Amino acid sequence: MSDIKAQIAEKGTLALGQITAAAELAQLEQIRVSVLGKKGSLSEALKSLGQVPPEERPVLGALANEWKSKIEAALETKKTALEVLAIEASLEKTKLDVTIPSRKPHVGSLHPITTTVRAISKVLGRIGFDVTVGPEIETDFLNFEAVNIPKDHPARDMQDTFFIGPGVVLRSQTSPVQMREMRNQSWPVRILSPGAVYRCDSDATHSPMFHQIEGLWVDRKVSMSDLKGVLDFFAKEMFGTETKIRLRPSYFPFVEPGAEVDVSCMLCGGKNHQCPICKGTGWLEILGAGMVHPRLFELAGYRPDEVTGFAFGMGIERIAMLLHGIPDMRFLFQGDLRFLKQFGVQR
Ligand code: DAH
């Protein structure tokens, strides 16, 4: 009996030693099979119990079971330990540094033309101008005739137009929106209309597609001094409170009288004879304006003896270039991110 006892203890002790030394889960499984498996060493020892006298069997059986549970427990403990080690090792391999700053999500920025339109609309919105838009594909009639530029009128030469079909043009100005609005609603009208316009022209200061914003205010007794007041307010809000405006008589078929409007140079204030933007004149032309021609009221179905109004139209690129000191208009349309990113994320 003591022989078998010793055998069991020896095998058990050996197994425990192996378990302690095991470095991998697979090894542990091998040990389990070699000790506790059907043909395992402990199982074999139990089988040999058949040869011992029956009265000794319970003692030996209990001993063997004791070892069996010891080994099972040791296997389990070691298994858990090895699993933890395996997880730690794999974490070590794919090490994540949660303190590294995350990548900034890519958000685009608004184009300077968009921000300029919004800035202009915001300023004039404060004095009651509502924004409305017209189509870029326009009839010859609305683009020209309805704003008092008949066929063969020399004023058509001022706007080299893309004709895209019989009687259909890419609008060369936003002025047709004046007529669309007046035909759409009765007076009073106080609108702003921004958008793209097209002319067959291309150099550092001209692009075949550019943007304008049209303004129209029609009501009883709107006068030239209202026009000056609105433009003065606009210039001071856009370019700074020191800014002055000046009106020079000019001709546009849809207004009478008509004027070209300058703002005082925001860079040099007229003090630098070599100023790169005003060329030393102290003034920068920014828009055309005037009192709405009675002919337009007739065509719109308004009574010229009942209402008056003023209109103005300005190039948005020019304003954006002045606001941001952009030297070449083409930068605005080249889609170069190095240029566009300078305007930051504004929404
Ligand atoms: N439509 C003119 C142009 O493109 C700009 C303009 C001038 C608009 C005078 C107006 C205005 O409304 O009154 O050159």
Question: What does this protein look like?
Answer:
- Helices cover 40% and strands 19% of the residues.
- It is an alpha+beta fold and 347 residues long.
- It folds into two domains: 2-93; 112-339, BirA Bifunctional Protein, domain 2 (2-Layer Sandwich).
- A seven-stranded mixed β-sheet has the order 1-5-6-10-9-8-7, sandwiched between helices. It has a three-stranded antiparallel β-sheet with strand order 2-4-3.
- The chain is rod-shaped, with a radius of gyration of 44 Å.
- The mean pLDDT is 90.
- 3,4-dihydroxyphenylalanine (DAH) binds next to strand 8, strand 9 and strand 10.
Give a topology summary.
Elements lengths: L1 H20 L3 H12 L4 H7 L9 H37 L18 H14 L4 E2 L5 E3 H4 L19 E3 L2 E3 L5 H9 L4 E10 L10 E11 L4 H16 L5 E6 L4 E10 L18 E10 L1 H7 L7 E8 H9 L12 H4 L7
Parallel strand pairs: 1-5
Antiparallel strand pairs: 2-4, 3-4, 5-6, 6-10, 7-8, 8-9, 9-10
Helix pairs in contact: 1-4, 2-4, 5-8, 5-10, 7-9
This protein binds 3,4-dihydroxyphenylalanine (DAH).
Task: Please sum up the structure shown.
The chain is an alpha+beta fold.
Average pLDDT reading: 90
Q: In the CATH hierarchy, what is the superfamily of the largest domain?
A: Bira Bifunctional Protein, Domain 2
Please report the distance between the alpha carbons of the first and last residues: 91 Å
Helix-strand sequence: HHHHHEEHEEHEEHEEEHEHH
Bound molecules: 3,4-dihydroxyphenylalanine
Rg over C-alpha atoms, rounded to the nearest angstrom: 44 Å
Number of domains: 2
At the fold tier of CATH, the topology name of the largest domain is BirA Bifunctional Protein, domain 2
Number of strand elements: 10
Low-confidence stretches: none
Biggest sheet, spatial arrangement of strands: 1-5-6-10-9-8-7
Report the CATH architecture of the largest domain: 2-Layer Sandwich
Based on secondary structure, the structural category is alpha+beta
CATH class term of the largest domain: Alpha Beta
Q: Judging from the principal axes of the Cα atoms, what is the shape?
A: rod-shaped
What proportion strand? 15-25%
For the sheet with most strands, the description reads:
7 strands, mixed
